[in-house]
Structure formats: C-alpha cells, structure tokens
Design a protein that fits this description.
Chains A, B: InterPro entries: FldB/FldC_alpha/beta (IPR010327), YjiM-like (IPR047678). 2 copies of one chain form a homodimer. Chain A has about 425 residues and is an alpha/beta fold. Chain A has one domain. In chain A, helix 7 runs parallel beside helix 9, helix 11 runs parallel beside helix 13 and helix 17 packs across helix 18. The longest helix of chain A is centred in the middle third of the chain and has 23 residues. The model of chain A has no long low-confidence stretch (mean pLDDT about 95). At the A-B interface, helix 9, helix 10 and helix 18 of A face helix 9, helix 10 and helix 17 of B.
C-alpha cells in the first residue's frame, strides 16, 4: 500500500470508491488545464498541489494534529479564518465540487437540493474526502435553507458549530454578528484549549490580510487589456486558497504576480486582444468544478473576473489591523466579513449589483455570465434584479443554471458560444 | 355589471382572468365539500363564506377602509395579529393555494420555487386576488429563502414590512424576536396613526385568544373515537379563519362545536368506526388547496389532525393576558409565536417531532401523512429526522411531495389507498 493509501485507510476512508475519483481527476485536470498554451511558470506550484490534492495537504494537516493543533473545516466565506488561526488552529476547505459525491448526499438530502450541499454531505457520509475525515470540528452558518438543515444531518456524524447569519444588515444585525464572532472566539478557545488574546488575533488578521492582498494583486493583473493568466488558472488558485497554508499561498501568489506583472509590461497575453472579456457572477465554484470557465475559455472568451465566493468575495477588503480590544477586533471582522460580503442570502442585497457594475468597469468586461447552481433559490430569485439592472446599464448578460453533471455541457457550450459571437459582432 | 364585478373593477383587478377562477371554484368546491354526507349544519356559514370568498369579505374590508381602518395582509403564522388589531387594523390572509396563480408567479420567480410562493406573488402581480388589491400594507417574514427573496420583488409593487425571524431559539434569538415585535408595534402605529397602548394590546390579545380557544375546542372534538366532522371541513374552517373577522369566526366556530359535542354524545360519526385516522404534518395548505384531505377522505380514511401552519400551529397555546407593560406583552407574544411554533425554518427543530408524537397520541392516530409542497427544502430536509423518529416510535408514515397541479392526483391516490389498506390490514 502506498503512502497516500495508507493515510486514507487510517482515516477510515472508502478506498475503493475514492480510487475511482483519483482515477478520474488527472484526466479531467489535464483536459482543462494542461492543454492551455503559454501558461505562467508560477502555475507549477498549483499544478503540483492539484495533482496530489488529497495527499500532500492532508498529510500536513495530520502532522499538525499530531503536534496538537486543531483542524477546522469551513463551508463558507462568512466564517472568519482569523479566529481559528488565533487559536493556533488550521482552517481547511472541504470537498463539494464534483458530481462524484452527489449520489451519496442524495441518500439523506432531497434531490431538489443544490449540488454543492449534496456533494459536501455526500463527501463526508461516503468517506471519500480526506479533509472531511481529518477536520476536528466543522463550522457551518445559516446562509441558506439547504445548508442550515443539512448541517443538522451532518451534526449527527461530526462535531459542528453553527454561526447564525442574520437575514439583513440593519444595525441590530451587525451587532448580532459581532456577538456571533465573540461567541466563536469562546468556542475556539474551549475546543483548542488555547486562549485567544488580542495580540494573537491581530497577528491572525495580519496573516489573512496578506493573503487577501496577494489575491487582490493577482486579480489586479486581470484588469489589464493584456491578460497574463487564464480564468481557469485563477479559479484553481482561488480553490486551492481555501485549503493551503495561508502564508505559503501568499508567497506563491506573490511570486506568480511578479511573473504576471512582467508579462503585462511585455504585453504577453494568453488570449487574443479581441477575445470577449467575461465576468462571471453567481454561486461558488468548489474544486474541481471548472465547468463554466472551461466552456468560456475553449469557446473563444476569456474570464477576467469572478464576483462570487470563490472569487472577489473571498479577498475583497482587508480587516483593520492593530485592534486594541477583542470587541474592537470583532467589529473589524464584522466590517469585512458581514457588512462587505454581499451574498444573496441577505434581504435586500442591492450592494451586490453595485459590486458587479463596479467590477465590470474595472475589469473592462464585454459580457456578464450569471451562473447559478441548480436549486439555489436565493441566487435564482435575486437574478430577477441582477439581470434587469445589468441590462439597464447596457451590459450583455447571459444567465445560466447548471449543476455538476456533464449532461448539459454541450447545451451550455452552444449558448455560451452564441453569446460570445454576439459580443464579438457588436465589438 | 354586478356588485362584485364593480368592486373587482374598482380594485383594478383583471376581470376576465379572475372570471376564469370564479367559474372553476364552485365546481371544485362542490366536488370536495358538497358531496359529503351528514355534514354538520354549522358548516352552512362556512359554505356561504366559501361560495363568495372574493365578494363578501372584500366588501367588508373596503367598507372598513372607508371608515379609516387599515387592512394588513400577512403570509405566515409568525406575524402577531394582535399588534395589527391593537392599532385598529384588520388582518387578512392572502391568495396562494391554487395552481391558477402559479404561471403569473413564474414570470418573475424561478420555476424551482414552492407553489405557495409562486401563487402568492402571481396572485398579486396578475391582479386576480381582491385581498392582494385591498391590503394597505403587507407584513412578510424571513422564514425561508423563497419567501425572503420573493418579498423583495413584491416590495417593488406594494408597501411591505419584513419581520426578521431568527434561525434558532437561543436566548439571543428570543430577545431579537421581542425586538421585532416592538419594532412592528412602532411600524403599525406610524402606519395607522393609532397609538398602541397596553390596554389596546391586551384587548387584542384577548380577542385572538378567544379565537384560538374556539379552534382548540373544534380540534378537541376530533380526538374522540366518534368523528363528528370531516378533515376537509375543518381544513376549510382553518383556511377561512385567516380571512374572517376574528370575533365572528369565534362565535361561528363555538356554535358549530356545540353541535359537534352533541354529535359525540349521541355517537354520530361522519366516518365508519374502523376508518384509518390520519394525522397530516408538513407544509401549509392555503385555500383552495384541499387536495390531500380530499384524497384521504375519498379513499376510506379520515383526517383527524393537521400539524402544520393551517392546523395546530395556528391556534396552539394562548398568549398571556393582562400584561402590565408593552415589553411584558411583547414577551408574552414571543412566548406564543416564537418559542412555541416549531417550524422547519428553525435549526434545530426537534420540538416539532415531539409535537407530532404528542398529537398522534391525543388524536388516536393510525397513520401519519407527511405532506410537503414541492421545492420546500426546509421541510423536505427535516423529513429525514421526522420520518425516522416516527417510524422508530412505531407509527406508520407515508411521505409525499406534491404541488398544486392535478397531474399527480391519481398517483397520490394510489399511494394513499395502499397506505390506508396497509393500516386497515394491521388494525
């Protein structure tokens, strides 16, 4: 038995089933990523991570656990990494981006649930995700009906803490989120046995801010008319950012950015100058969900920005540093995580449309793809306002609903191609 | 033009379209209700109300508006009627129980939305519901993703106030709901121009309590082995209770109960003694949604209790009377409306299962039908726990998902018949 299989076996994973995933991923990865021409050399690190995504990082996490650190699995960009890091914990993303995990989720969840939730629950219950086996505790949030209730099922199997996300952003909601954060501090202290003082929390804020700044720098490279990196590659980096050690990721992204900034100076673009520049907005794209980016970028378009939770919402704004008290730090975290993340779970949520419009301008966008996962009622309903306003502002918009199955890929490709041709014809 | 058509025209309704509904309802009503044998005479009042449900009560509401009273439309049992009544306002239910309104709703909402929400929005936007035209203001709540976001669309067309329902029942959630109620008092005061003092609020609490006691008395009549009234008739009364004047309804229900109590003494049952006694739990059944009750009761069963928002949740418990301060009254309202309503929107929600088990015993139930509207993710997911626990406790359970279309009626009838036969075989 090789080292990875020994580890997966020790984690109580379903080896036979997981091997099916391991057998399929390299081909899918090769098709989407390795066929690209003129990729930045800085992608080598991310290729390496992706190639052994259930091996290298899980082994690191297990090693950290042996040294007494706690690993905390999170599902959503509302959960503040800083609190976990300040308790000497490690944050990890979780599996949830492939149809592979959906059938197992459907054993306990309604079929009319979004594939991200079904896949996440299925990955845990089917024992086919090392991260879901490793994490010592999971932190959920009440962002949507589907997750809120699915966490009840998960909590029968794992230790969970649920953060209650208010429905709006009124003053009392902001105060309530402050309290959720301070309660979470207490939960993490109790669970880890490590007291979180303001110095540790400020340090953690700094670490995560540096990561955000690196990702902001990466996204800034995409604003130029010369596009030095594909949307696919950026999406992969974002997906890996949820799993990787934050300081190492920061260094790798900054080093990649140096290469990209050089490319911009030298006008080395990975896409033809007239390729339609696409902004994608909507629901998150968990690894290995590369479907839409792949379709756009193999149909003549180039994705230059993602207004979603695996895009700008993950790194926009930083948290105020050097806070004097825990209450001040909680407020600073709320300011960044709550006030400034414009998820469709909030009512009303007009700021999201303002964000899309601002980003569309900054990234010199030619068209907007509004891509939502099937059965995500929040985003599907909000789409009524999003599509109307974007069209009023003169943008070309295509709204698509999809899940993790391949069966609609050709139909999506046809619609995306027609959309890109329409943009090119009007350019 | 007859009086009703004149009124509907004055309300800006789409007369041609609404006439289609008016033409279809009497036949449907006759089939479901008037074919019953040995109905209590006390149902005459409810027959009369149902026969002219878009005529009599709307005319009363318009008359009240002329006298300066405000009519407030509500969608959900969490909104406290008492606050509206204390401001000299009138509470009205709204249309939402028929497929007739769904296509208009689907023009603005995702098809994957529950039919109750699509029908409600469609009834307003299609101008085919007098209540949706009459109400001066609408009070929504953040119970589920679908409603939360649909209210954003409705608020472009009507004046709305949204109450933010917390996700759980922790101490801070209870305090938050207290505040929602006190904020709602202020909203109603401002909107009606009437100050709400503690005396007015206590009076309103008394009025609604009397209505609850009458409905409790009605339901108590169904606990007997002699069943003096059909489930269909009780469902109709419950549906009308959302629309009718509360004091008149109380009197009518009490008078009906005298007849039913006499029937019990004389052992006059509308169902054979061996008919399987069914409890229905799940999502609400808005008028004219009589589908499941009709199927059960024309397949040999008798519905003796509904654990849902158009059933026990509407009247269980009373609100403490004679409160000294507004804060004390708000707490009393929270105690009844928040702590004691066990909706699937809360996480976790084990109390609902306790309720079902208690009711199943009290109503001497032979089988439980767990009936959820399609695309209601909250109830569908919670069903995982409900069905498991009820079966563990030895109950026969059938879970069904349905919408407002007739297309699945025969399939449902087959499944329900098999369920009832299985119960009878084991009796």
């Amino acid at each position: 038995m090789d080292k990875n299989h020994q580890m997966w076996s020790d984690l109580g994973m379903d080896l036979d089933k997981h091997d099916l995933l391991c057998a399929a991923l390299p081909g899918a990865y090769g098709d989407v990523f390795l066929t690209q021409e003129n990729r930045p050399q800085g992608m080598d690190y991310f290729n390496m991570v992706a190639a052994d995504i259930h091996g290298i990082r899980p082994a690191e996490l297990i090693q950290a656990q042996k040294e007494g650190r706690k690993v905390i699995g999170t599902f959503c960009v509302f959960v503040p990494d800083e609190v976990i890091i300040a308790a000497n914990g490690i944050v990890t993303g979780l599996c949830g981006g492939s149809q592979f995990w959906v059938p197992e989720g459907e054993k306990v969840l309604p079929a009319n649930t979004c594939p991200l939730i079904k896949a996440s629950v299925g990955a845990r219950l089917g024992r086919t995700c090392p991260y879901f086996r490793i994490a010592d505790m999971f932190v959920g949030e009440t962002t949507c009906d589907g997750k809120k209730k699915a966490y009840e099922i998960l909590s029968e199997d794992v230790k969970m803490h649920i953060m209650h996300l208010p429905h709006g952003k009124r003053p009392q909601d902001i105060a309530a989120w402050d309290k959720e954060i301070l309660d979470f501090v207490k939960v993490m202290e109790d669970f880890s046995g490590n007291k979180i003082d303001i110095d540790k929390l400020n340090q953690a804020i700094h670490i995560v801010n540096e990561k955000r700044k690196a990702l902001q720098r990466l996204y800034n490279c995409r604003k130029n008319s010369c596009v030095p990196i594909s949307g696919r590659d950026v999406l992969l980096i974002m997906q890996i950012a949820f799993f990787d050690d934050p300081e190492r990721l920061t260094a790798q992204v900054n080093s990649l950015c140096e290469e990209l900034e050089k490319r911009i100076k030298e006008d080395v673009s990975i896409a033809p100058k007239n390729a339609p520049r696409i902004l994608i907005t909507g629901t998150p794209m968990a690894v290995p969900n590369w479907k839409m980016h792949n379709i756009v970028e193999t149909s003549g378009g180039i994705v230059v920005c993602e207004e979603n939770c695996t895009g700008t919402r993950y790194f926009t704004n930083t948290v105020k540093e050097n806070n004097k008290t825990m209450e001040e730090a909680a407020s600073a975290l709320t300011e960044r995580y709550f006030n400034n993340i414009h998820c469709a779970c909030f009512t009303p949520n007009p700021e999201r449309i303002d964000d899309i419009l601002r980003l569309a301008k900054e990234y010199q966008v030619d068209g907007i793809l509004n891509v939502n996962l099937k059965f995500c009622n929040l985003y599907a309903t909000e789409n009524y306002f999003v599509e109307r306003r974007l069209k009023e502002e003169g943008y070309k918009v295509l709204s698509l609903e999809t899940d993790y199955e391949d069966s609609d890929a050709e139909q999506l490709r046809t619609r995306v191609s027609a959309f890109l041709e329409m943009i090119e014809a009007n350019k």
